[in-house]
Write a structure and sequence with these properties.
Helices cover 45% and strands 4% of the residues. The protein is mainly alpha-helical. The strands form three sheets. The chain has a two-stranded parallel ribbon with strand order 1-2. It is globular and about 85 Å long. Among the domains are: 143 residues, Serine Threonine Protein Phosphatase 5, Tetratricopeptide repeat (Alpha Horseshoe); 131 residues, DNA Cyclobutane Dipyrimidine Photolyase, subunit A, domain 3.
Length: 765
C-alpha cells in the first residue's frame, strides 16, 4: 500500500500501455485458519483492529493513486497541446480539462475470491478492447503460499490437496488467455525482507565464518566493512532503464543451509550481505483501460480529491472501500460474521462500532452509507493506545523520520506524491532528541508510544519496506559521522552549541535497529526453509507434545482474566487496540504454552487475528520459538510477574488496562495477592480506608485497615494487602490461574546485589 519502493507498480508503469491497480478483499481472509470443528480457535485470520487499519491504508492509497493519475493526465495533455503548431503553454488545470478521454489513476476495490474477481475484470477489459493482445499480472508474493480450502471445507493447513491462492490465480489467467487467444505473463515481486533472497551468502552459512573475519569470502577488515555499506546489487542498466529482479525462489532446498539459530544468521548475513537500493515512486502512470477511463467530470472530481477536497464515493466502477469493520465482515458472508462473533465472545469486546479514523473517512472512496452516521470517538481512537497512528505510507514515513531524526508533528501533506518525491532528500536533524537515541534502553519496555519504533504494522501492511527504513537509518548514521568529524576538526560543533549534532543517535543505536530488521528477515527465511511445518502442532523441530485444550483456561487467557496483571493488561491492550509490546508477547506466549500447556496454535491464531502487525512468518515462527517447538536453543520460560516489574516498573500497563487494580500502589498492581503492606503503602491504605469510610468517627489506622481487609478475605486466602484498598481477589479481580510464586523470579538489580554480596563473602548462594 505504497508508491515508493514498489517493484510491482514500477514495473507495470514502465512496460504497460495501460495499468489497473487492484485490491481484492478476499472473504477467505475473514475466515478462521482452523475451524473450531477442526480443533482451531475459530476466529478470523483478519481481525477487526487490523481490518480497520487496512481500510485506512486503502483509502490513503486510493488518494495517492488519484493524485498520481492526475500528474499523468496533466503530462499527457500538456505534451499533446505543445505538439500542436502555435500552441500556448498549458497549465495543470487546463491540462486536466483537455485530457477528458485519457489518463487518470485510481484503485479498483472488489470483494470476492481473488481468481474470480480478476477474471471478471479481465472480461471487462477485453470487452472494451477487442484488440487486446497481452495481459501482465504484477504482484508481491508471500513467503508461505497456503492451500485454500474449497467452499464448505474446513479451513486450515490440513487441506494438502487444495490449491494455494497464487497458483489458482495463475492457472485462471493461463486458461482465460488461452481461451481468448490473448498472451499473458505473471510477474511475482519480492518485498518482504531487508535482504533479497538472491543476495544471501548461502555458501557461508554453516561454515562458522562471518565476513569481516579470517577466511571471509566476501568482505573483510575495514575495507570490507566500508564496502558493505554500499548497495551490492545495483539495478542493471538496459536500454536506458533500470531493471530489477522479480520473483524469489521459494524452493525450500535453496534455504537448507540457513542457520537455525538467529544469532548465527544475523552475524553472517549482516557482515556479508548488503541492502538493495530503494525505488522512487513512479513519476506518472499509464492510463487505465477503457472501462475505467475518466470523462471530464470525473477527472475534475479526482483533481479536487488530489487537492484535498472531500467528495462523495467515487464511481461504482472503481468500487467502494467498506466504511466500517462490520460492513467488511458482512460483505464476507455468514461464515465471516460467525468468526467475528466467536472472537467477540472470546475477548469480551464488541467491535460493531469500530470505524476507520476520521481522517481516513474524509478520503474519497469510503462507503458513504457506512460512514454517514459517524462513530463514537472511543470506537475510532482509543486514547489509551500505544499505537495512535492511522495507516498509510505518508504516516509511515513521518513516523520513521520522527523516530530517527526527531521530526516535528505530522505534516498533513507528508503523504502526497510531491512530498514523497521531495523526500528523497534526507531530512535534517532537529534539536529535539529522536527516540532512536534511547533505543537500546527502551526497546524492551512494555509501555509507551516511543519505547519502540511502531513501524511493524506499517511493514506488515506494505505501507513501507524494511529497506526504506534501513535507508533512513543509514542516512542518520552518516549524519552522525559527519557531525563527529566536524566537531573533531574544531568547526561549529552541534554538541557544543546544543544543536542538531547533539541530538543524533549513536552508531550503536543505528546498529540495534538494523539488527532488528535482520531478525525480522530471520523469521521470514525460516518459513521459506521449513514451509508448512511452522503451522504444525509439533513445530519446526517436529517435537510431539501432549498439549492440553481447556476451553475455560483459553477463555481466561484470551480475555485477560488470568489473575496475573502483566499478562492480563497485555491481553486486554491487544484486544482493544491491536497492539502489544514485544516483551508482552513473549510473556503471554510463555504462560499459555509453557505454564498452562495449552495448544500454542490457539495463541498464534488469536495473535494473527488481532495484531496490527500480523505477519504469518513472524507470528508463527515466534510462537514456535516460545512454545518450545521452534529454534530457541535455550527453551526459555518467562517469569511473568518479575518481567512486569522489570519492564513496567510503575505498573502503568496494569493501571491503564486493569481499572479494577488502578487504585492499588504499583507493587500491588504487580502482586495483588500479597498479604503484607510496605511502610510506604500503609499510609496509603489508611487514607483509602478513611475515604471509603462514612460511619467511623475517627480515620482508621493502617493496622485497622489490614484488619478490615482480613475480614473481607477468607482465612488462608491471598490478597489481604489489596483488600486494604478495597480490592478483593476473586470478587474484583480473578485469583491467579497458576501459583504466582512460580511466576516470580529475581530482578536484575537484586541478582546483582546478591552476586556483589557473595563476592564480599557475606552470603552463600
Amino acid at each position: 500500500m505504497r508508491l515508493e519502493d514498489n517493484e510491482a507498480l514500477t514495473a507495470a508503469a514502465r512496460h504497460a500501455d495501460a495499468t489497473l491497480a487492484i485490491h481484492i478483499l478476499d472473504p477467505r481472509d475473514l475466515l478462521p485458519r482452523r475451524a473450531r470443528s477442526a480443533g482451531g480457535l475459530g476466529v478470523p485470520k483478519l481481525g477487526p483492529p487490523r481490518a480497520r487499519f487496512m481500510l485506512e491504508g486503502l483509502a490513503e492509497l486510493r488518494r495517492q493513486l488519484q493524485e498520481l493519475g492526475q500528474v499523468s493526465v496533466a503530462q499527457e495533455a500538456a505534451a499533446a497541446a505543445s505538439a500542436r503548431p502555435g500552441a500556448a503553454a498549458v497549465g495543470p488545470a487546463a491540462a486536466r480539462a483537455q485530457a477528458s478521454s485519457s489518463g487518470g489513476g485510481d484503485l479498483v476495490v472488489r470483494c470476492g475470491r481473488t481468481e474470480q474477481v480478476l477474471k471478471q475484470l479481465l472480461n471487462q477489459v477485453l470487452e472494451a478492447h477487442p484488440e487486446l493482445r497481452h495481459v501482465s499480472l504484477h504482484y508481491h508474493m508471500e513467503p508461505l503460499p497456503e492451500p485454500e480450502p474449497e467452499p464448505g471445507a474446513a479451513p486450515g493447513p490440513s487441506g494438502a490437496a487444495a490449491e494455494d491462492r497464487e497458483a489458482a490465480v495463475q492457472r485462471m489467467l493461463a486458461a482465460w488467455a488461452a481461451q481468448r487467444g490473448v498472451g499473458c505473463s505473471v510477474h511475482p515481486h519480492w518485498d518482504k525482507t531487508l535482504y533479497h533472497p538472491d543476495d544471501l551468502p548461502y555458501s557461508m552459512y554453516g561454515t562458522g565464518k562471518a565476513a569481516g573475519g579470517q577466511g571471509s569470502q566476501k568482505s573483510g577488515g575495514k575495507e570490507g566493512q566500508q564496502q558493505a555499506k554500499q548497495p551490492q546489487h545495483q539495478p542493471q542498466q538496459q536500454d536506458g532503464r533500470q531493471q530489477y529482479s522479480q520473483a524469489a525462489n521459494r524452493d525450500a532446498q535453496r534455504y537448507r543451509t540457513l542457520p537455525s539459530v538467529m544469532t548465527d544468521f544475523r552475524r553472517t548475513t549482516q557482515s556479508a550481505c548488503v541492502v538493495r537500493a530503494c525505488l522512487p515512486p513512479p513519476a506518472a502512470l499509464p492510463p487505465p483501460p477503457g472501462p475505467w477511463r475518466q470523462d471530464a467530470a470525473t477527472a475534475a472530481t479526482a483533481g479536487a480529491v488530489a487537492a484535498g477536497a472531500s467528495v462523495p464515493a467515487v464511481e461504482s466502477l472503481w468500487g467502494e472501500i467498506p466504511g466500517s469493520v462490520t460492513a467488511l465482515y458482512e460483505a464476507g458472508g455468514p461464515e465471516a460474521v460467525a468468526a467475528l462473533a466467536r472472537l467477540q465472545e472470546l475477548v469480551g469486546l464488541d467491535y460493531s462500532q469500530l470505524y476507520p479514523s476520521k481522517a481516513a473517512t474524509a478520503i474519497a472512496g469510503m462507503d458513504a452509507a457506512a460512514t454517514a452516521t459517524g462513530a463514537p470517538a472511543a470506537a475510532v481512537e482509543d486514547p489509551r493506545s500505544a499505537f495512535p497512528f492511522r495507516a498509510g505510507s505518508g504516516e509511515a514515513l513521518h513516523r520513521l523520520r520522527y523516530y530517527v531524526w526527531g521530526s516535528p508533528d505530522y505534516d498533513p501533506e507528508a503523504g502526497t506524491l510531491q512530498a514523497m518525491q521531495e523526500g528523497q532528500q534526507q531530512q535534517q536533524p532537529l534539536a529535539s532528541p529522536p527516540s532512536l537515541l534511547y533505543f537500546t534502553n527502551t526497546r524492551a519496555q512494555a509501555v509507551g508510544v516511543d519505547s519502540s519504533t511502531k513501524l511493524s504494522p506499517f511493514c506488515a501492511l506494505g505501507c513501507i519496506t524494511p529497506r526504506r527504513i534501513y535507508q533512513e537509518v543509514e542516512a542518520v548514521r552518516e549524519a552522525a559521522k559527519a557531525a563527529a568529524l566536524s566537531s573533531a576538526a574544531g568547526e561549529a560543533s552541534a554538541a557544543a552549541g546544543g544543536g542538531g549534532g547533539a541530538c543524533l543517535p549513536t552508531p550503536a543505536e543505528c546498529d540495534w535497529l538494523a539488527m532488528h530488521l535482520c531478525i525480522r528477515d530471520f523469521w521470514t527465511y525460516t518459513v521459506l526453509k521449513e514451509g508448512m511445518a511452522t503451522l504444525d502442532e509439533r513445530g519446526i523441530v517436529g517435537q510431539p507434545v501432549s498439549w492440553r485444550r481447556d476451553p475455560d483456561v483459553l477463555a481466561r487467557w484470551c480475555s485477560g482474566r488470568t489473575g496475573l496483571p502483566f499478562v492480563d493488561a497485555n491481553m486486554r491492550e491487544l484486544a482493544a487496540t491491536g497492539w502489544m509490546s514485544n516483551r508482552g508477547r513473549q510473556n503471554v506466549a510463555s504462560l499459555l504454552a509453557k505454564d498452562l500447556q495449552q495448544d500454542w496454535r490457539w495463541g498464534a491464531e488469536l495473535f494473527e487475528c488481532l495484531l496490527l502487525d500480523s505477519d504469518v512468518a513472524v507470528n508463527y515462527c515466534n510462537w514456535n520459538y516460545f512454545a518450545g517447538v521452534g529454534n530457541d536453543p535455550r527453551n526459555r520460560r518467562f517469569k511473568t510477574v518479575t518481567q512486569g516489574m522489570q519492564y513496567d516498573e510503575d505498573a502503568v500497563l496494569a493501571a491503564t488496562w486493569l481499572p479494577e487494580l488502578a487504585r492499588l500502589p504499583p507493587r500491588l498492581r504487580h502482586t495483588p495477592w500479597a498479604n503484607d503492606l510496605l511502610p510506604a503503602e500503609q499510609e496509603a491504605a489508611a487514607a483509602a480506608a478513611a475515604a471509603a469510610s462514612t460511619t467511623r468517627s475517627a480515620p482508621p489506622t493502617a493496622a485497622s485497615a489490614l484488619a478490615v481487609a482480613a475480614g473481607q478475605v477468607a482465612a488462608g486466602q491471598m490478597g489481604a494487602a489489596a483488600a486494604a484498598f478495597g480490592v478483593v481477589l476473586g470478587r474484583d479481580y480473578p485469583l491467579p490461574i497458576v501459583d504466582p510464586v512460580e511466576q516470580t523470579g529475581t530482578l536484575p538489580a537484586e541478582e546483582k546485589a546478591r552476586k556483589a554480596a557473595k563476592a564480599r563473602g557475606k552470603v552463600k548462594l
